[in-house]
Amino acid sequence: MKKIIFMALATGLFAFTSCSSDDDGEEVGEPSASACQTCTLTAEDGETSAIEYCDNGDGTVTATVVGTGSETTIPLDGTSFSVFISTMEQITSSNCQ
């Protein structure tokens, strides 16, 4: 249940992360250097969750909960994949590799 709530929260938060000033030189649809990143989050109770984010190259990211296979597609709304991952790390205090 915590993983489902976390995914819903993460998806909702990313709807607000896109700004025109976020341009870091990468073009939408351009393949990133690292197509997938796995972010690990540790909850207050010590339980860890991992979500793999993969750049689809079409302005969207596929988020897959590791272990369950639950999958959702998140629009980047003009933000690059690297900015998306950096934002994910900041918002959730997670470690992405």
From TrEMBL:
Q: Give the record's keywords alphabetically.
A: Signal
Is Signal set as a keyword in this record?
yes
Q: Which domain of life is it from?
A: Bacteria
Q: So which residues are the signal peptide here?
A: 1-21
Spell out the protein name for this chain.
Answer: Uncharacterized protein
Source organism (scientific name): Mesonia profundi
